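hey so u asked for the seq, here:
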Amino acid sequence: MDDNADPRERMNDDAILDESKMKDLILDDLIKMLTDMLEISPTDIRPDTRIFDELDLDSLQLYELVVDLEEVYSIRMPDEDLDNVSTVNDVVDLVFRLSTQSEK
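ran it, structure tokens below
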């Protein structure tokens, strides 16, 4: 599978992807976004990495990340959902939930 393909194309090409595979794709995309933004190694990011405590994202970087995720996955991330996000895995779960809701 082409890792440089648009994430939506990867998911739409194989609509039968199971939940864990879709979440793995989202995680890969999120790690790429974070490593590009923060100029850190992908090995520094794990699903349980705390976004604010360990990655030290500032509010502008968080806004950029949210905008990028919304654009890539054609979703809208409500502020109240973002308030409940603390780890990388929380972001993955949120993007997955919102992207699967938008497909219905």
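The CA atoms of residues 6 and 72 lie 7 Å apart. The domain at 7-103 is CATH 1.10.1200.10 (Non-ribosomal Peptide Synthetase Peptidyl Carrier Protein; Chain A).
lmk if thats what u needed
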